[in-house]
Amino acid sequence: MKLVRHVLRVPGGRRSAEVASFFAQLDDLNRRLLEDLRGTGAAELAWQPKRGQNTIGMLLAHMAIVEVFWTQVAFERHTPEALALALGLGIDDDGMPLPARGAPPAGLRGRPLRWFARLLARARAVSRRAFARLGPRDLEREVERTRRRDGQRSRVNLRWILYHVLEHQAGHHGQILLLRHQYRDRRRT
Fold first, then answer.
1. Residue 29 lies in a domain
2. What CATH number does residue 136 fall under?
3. What is residue 39's three-state secondary structure?
4. Is 56 left (phi over 0), alpha (psi -120 to 50) or beta?
5. Interhelix angle for 158-185 vs 113-132, to 10°?
6. Cα separation, 171 vs 64, whole angstroms
7. Cα separation, 70 vs 4, whole angstroms
8. Which of the four, 7, 130, 155, 185, has the lowest number of CB atoms within 10 Å?
9. Which residue segment(s) compose the domain that 167 sits in?
10. Is 127 strand, coil or helix?
11. 30 assigned to some structural domain
């Protein structure tokens, strides 16, 4: 039987090995996500199990938006305009959260997988550039933010932000896999 190796390499020569490790993990997660989506057409990316539920395309756009959002929060430069300028999408262009009977945003309809892959790559370039200049102690720095939906204030350190982007993307990767199963099974039930 063939031996399968899984090795995560952390590039050297970075100011912070910890930041480099987070980005190695994020990059591997994105690589695996795009492998899992290989062959997915625009119809599947836009498919909605029922009104008010996310599509794969919405989740991909959301992952990119959240990565840039939290990167901008980390460096205390977040504004809706700054996010749109950095990513080419606004904070609400993923359509999330959808109202109970909501349809996906028209701006994502018909987009091919390569469009979403470029969006994710653009988000990663923004975050990689911003975090690359940090040294080991910089991850302890805390920032405060106020949630726009309910006014709740929170204080987080930059290490938590990197962790949150990673766990956020991993969670939505699982959701995307579930949607792919539902899409394939939709005609059998």
1. no
2. 1.20.120.450
3. coil
4. alpha
5. 170
6. 14
7. 35
8. 7
9. 39-185
10. helix
11. no
Mean pLDDT, all residues of the chain:
94
pLDDT single digits (tens) 119-148 = 999 999 999 999 999 998 999 999 999 877
Q: Does 46 reside within a domain?
A: yes
Locate 12 and state its tokens.
Answer: 């050297």
CB 64 within 8 A of CB 34: no
Mean pLDDT in residue range 70-89: 94
Structural domain tally of the chain? 1
Confidence of residue 188 (pLDDT cuts 50, 70, 90): low
Cβ contacts of residue 21 below 8 Å, gap of 6+? 10
Q: How far is CA 90 from CA 19, 86, 151, 165, 183, in A?
A: 26, 10, 20, 18, 28
Length of the chain: 189
End-to-end CA distance of the chain: 37
Place of tokens 């749109």: 84
Report residue 189's pLDDT band, with 50, 70 and 90 as the boundaries.
low
56-74 helix and 80-87 helix, angle to the nearest 10 degrees: 120
Say if 51 falls within a structural domain: yes
Q: What is the pLDDT of residues 165-181, one digit of tens each?
A: 999 999 999 999 999 99
Name residue 175's amino acid: Q
